[in-house]
Design a protein that fits this description.
It contains one helix and 24 strands. The longest helix has 5 residues. It is rod-shaped, with a radius of gyration of 46 Å. A five-stranded antiparallel beta sheet has the order 16-15-18-22-21, with no helix packed on it. A five-stranded mixed beta sheet has the order 17-24-23-19-20, with no helix packed on it. It is 1% helix and 33% strand. The chain has 414 residues and is an all-beta fold. The mean pLDDT is 91.
Length: 414
Amino acid sequence: VDIAANVAQDTAGNDNTAATQFSIDYDSAAPTISISSLASNPTNTSPIPVTITFSETVTGFVIGDITVGNGTTSNFVDIGGGAYTVDVTPAADGTVTVDVAANVAQDTAGNGNTVATQFSITFDSAPTVTINQSTSQADPTNTSPIIFEVVFSENVTDFDDYADVTISGMTAAPSISITSTGSGDTYTVSVSGMVDGEIIAATIPANVAIDTVSNSNEASTSTDNQVTFDTYAISITTGGITITPDNEVLKNYGVYETHFTNLEITFNADANNPAGNNSADDVTNPNNYLLIQSGNNTIYDTTSCLNFSNNSETPLGDDVQIPTGGVVYDAATFTSSLTLNNGTPLPAGEYRLFVCGSTSITDLAGNHLNNGVDSMTTFTIRNVSLPATGFPMGRVTKLPSQPENKSYSETNMT
C-alpha cells in the first residue's frame, strides 16, 4: 500500500510527504505432504525407514499424528525444512501403510496441511523353519529310516538337496532324502545309515531355501529333533530272576525249600509299558510270564510262549498252567514283580517259567526279549524233611537255656 507526496495539505497549506510503503504476505495455500522410503518394495527390512516431507515448514507435527497399519512407529526426528523421519516396525508379514490426516500441522500462515496420499509397502520377513521328529516316529526306534518333519513359515523353494540338512550323532555318512508334502512349506526328511546306540539329531542351516521374494531362511529351531537308534535286544540281567522277599536267585534247575509266591525279574533296559496291561508287548501283561508243570507224562509239551499262544493261550499236551498275575513294573530299576499261583505258596514239584520273548516283551525301541527267544528257567520246590531228631539237617539250631538238672549232655550218637 503506497500514498504519494503532495496529495494532502495541512491547515497551513503544507503538502504531505510520500508514505513509507506497507506490505503484507498473503498465504492461503495448505501445506501438502509426501511419504516415501528408501526401502525397496517388497522389503524384509525392519524397521522400515520412512520420510514424511511437507511442502513448507510447519509446526505442531508429532509422532502421534502418524497412523500406521500393521506396525508401530519409533525414532521420530525433525530433520528441518519441513521434513521428518520415522522408523516403522511391521507387526507381521503383509502390507504396511502410513497415513497422515489433514490439519495436524500448520504453516506460518496458520494453514492446516492437506491429507497425505497413503504410503504402502509390503513387508516379507525371512522364512523361519522348525525341524522335529515326525509325530509318527518312535523314539527310541530300531527301524530305519528315521523321519523328521520340516515346517517353514511360508512357501519356499530350493529345499531339495541332502546338504540342506545337517545330521549329527552318526559315525557313518548319513543317507538323506527330502520329500515335499506338496504344500510348499512342509517337508519330510528321511535319514538312514545309523548303527545301534547312536542319537541322531537334525538341524537346518540358514540360507538353504528362499521364499517368493528371494528371502533366505533363518536357521532352524526345534523342540524335539533327536531320535535314539536302538537295535540291541532287551534281556534279563544275570541273576535277574529272584524269589521275594528272600532275594534268592532263581536258577535253572535250582532246588528250593521255600514255597514262594512272588518273583522279581530285572531287565537290562527299559521295557515297553503302555497304559493298561493288555497289550501283547506290555511288560505288565500277565500272559508274558508263563509258569507250567508237566502232566502225568512228565514231559513239557509246551516248549515256548509262541507254542502256547498258537494253541489259543492253552498249555499243550497235559501240561498244567499255574496262574501268574498282578504284575507291577518299576521303570527306574527295569524290574517287574509278579504274583504266582494267585498268592498261594507253590506246592512241591517241578516247574518251568517262561518269560516271553518269542511273542511279546519288547524294549522301548521294539526289540524283542532275547531277539525273540523266551527266557526259560526250570526249578524244583521240595518239602523239608526232618530227621528223627527233629532238627533240620545242615543247619545250626540254637537250643533254649535249660536248668542244670535238665541240661543237655553229649552222647555217642552219630
